[in-house]
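Run log, item B.
One chain of 106 residues. Sequence copied directly from the ordering sheet:
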Amino acid sequence: MLKWEYALLVRRRQAATNDLGWEIVFIWYGPDGSMIDVTPYGDTALAHLNRAGDQGWELVAMSEDPSLEGHAELHRYHLKRPKPAGPPPRQRIRGTGRSGRRSVSG
């Protein structure tokens, strides 16, 4: 059965750390719970989405927070990809009827 893993790319406009106005920041929320600032990898959402696509991610939805219009805009890009197959389940080895004990005579 095919299983999916999901990630989230968030684009946020926020006050610049150098007090020179506003900056766009991109944060990647990975399927393992990680949160990574990926801003240095590109300055547009398309650059980040293309990079994610190269890694097998597919965009399934986009949403924006309407309560944060203007200077605090927030966009969310929801992505998914097939979950990598884990190792096959270990098979149980059944005994052949022998006890496996050795007897020492001596």
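Observations after the first pass:
- The radius of gyration is 25 Å.
- Residues 45-54 form the longest helix (10 residues).
Flagged for discussion on Thursday.
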